[in-house]
Amino acid sequence: TPFVKLSGVHKTYEAETGNVRALDPVSFGIDRGHIVSVVGPSGCGKSTLLRILAGIDPATGGQVVIDGQEISGPVPNMGIVFQRDLLLDWRNVLDNVMLPAELARANMDETRSRAVALLSELGVGDFLNRLPFELSGGMRQRAAIARALLMRPSLLLLDEPFSALDAMTRDQMNVILQRLQQHERVTTLLITHSIAEAVFLSDRVVVMSARPGRVLDVIDIDLPTPRP
Ligand code: ADP
Ligand code: ADP
């Protein structure tokens, strides 16, 4: 059974000018350790879907089950990376990545060595003491990914994490993320408007149409080389 299961999840926003159908009923699953991407043009409901899955925004109807539990609020132990990295300007890279450990009052020595290992694997090991403004956009997103993974989230949500980056950096980030996934095996939902990126990174691609956010197709990607 899939680790994440959405059944007939839909959303209508009530606005003064009338109701906005942000998402028509969607149903799909994410198997444990797999990456599922949602692709579609702007306004098709991708971010709405992500917020529902995060438990930030309630669905109007349908059911979201994560690890056998129907969600009804913010999902514990979840990692999120947005398009903008949201690093704290006044903290160095390592202290930014350590933030979730501080908030969770985790064992600092253990999590610090995990933070350093993750940052090294992501290629930012030489920048631990730098402040965010000293880093390129790609480096900052790597730090944001390390922060999201620090507490070994049961679910990782990536909301267009690379779309603010230039094409070359995006390619590099995709390769890094794919390699990282081979070790971390985290269950991931990736929102992107790049079909190429979705196909490159994911096990399954959910394709949405422009309006009103209907699912057009769910495509399972068969990779030429099987994953470990
Ligand atoms: P995407 O992430 O694919 O660009 P969104 O999920 O942000 O799409 O938005 C889907 C639709 O819902 C859009 O028509 C958008 O204008 C509308 N929408 C999003 N958030 C709200 C809101 N808080 N109130 C009203 N309408 C909203
Ligand atoms: P967009 O239309 O969003 O600009 P592109 O068509 O330029 O997207 O590229 C889509 C993305 O797919 C690229 O940014 C790249 O990161 C990723 N991608 C596709 N194939 C590969 C590959 N073989 N190696 C690495 N990244 C790839």
From TrEMBL:
It comes from the Bacteria. Keywords: ATP-binding, Nucleotide-binding, Transport. Residues 4-228 form the ABC transporter domain. InterPro entries: AAA+_ATPase (IPR003593), ABC_transporter-like_ATP-bd (IPR003439), ABC_transporter-like_CS (IPR017871), ABC_transporter_ATP-bind (IPR050166), P-loop_NTPase (IPR027417). Transmembrane segments: none annotated. One of its GO terms (molecular function) is ATP binding. PANTHER family: ALIPHATIC SULFONATES IMPORT ATP-BINDING PROTEIN SSUB, TAURINE IMPORT ATP-BINDING PROTEIN-RELATED. Belongs to the ABC transporter superfamily. This is ABC transporter ATP-binding protein. It comes from Seohaeicola nanhaiensis.
